[in-house]
Design brief:
Elements lengths: L17 H17 L1 H12 L4 H18 L8 H7 L1
């Protein structure tokens, strides 16, 4: 758990790639400053009562999913799975 006070969150993984985390953080900061859609999102979520830290956490997850979709993924067939077992 990563909760304190009135917040209730769970940390998925304490480890990770620090360079990737820094890259996500930089992307989110740039988007919050320059991307109109992201600025509208931040305004809307702030009006809903979210803190900047929570908004950035949501944006980082969104960016990570967006980047992951563009990574090359080798296709594994069922034949390859049966041979490996």
């Amino acid at each position: 758990p990563a909760s304190s006070g009135r917040t209730n969150r769970h940390r998925l993984n304490r480890g990770g790639d620090r360079q990737a985390n820094r890259a996500l953080h930089t992307i989110v900061l740039v988007r919050m400053r320059h991307d109109e859609r992201t600025r509208e999102y931040v305004t809307r979520r702030t009006a809903e009562g979210m803190t900047k830290k929570d908004i950035m956490r949501c944006l980082k997850r969104f960016v990570a999913r967006e980047v992951y979709r563009h990574l090359p993924h080798p296709h594994i067939t069922t034949e390859q799975l049966t041979q490996a077992a």
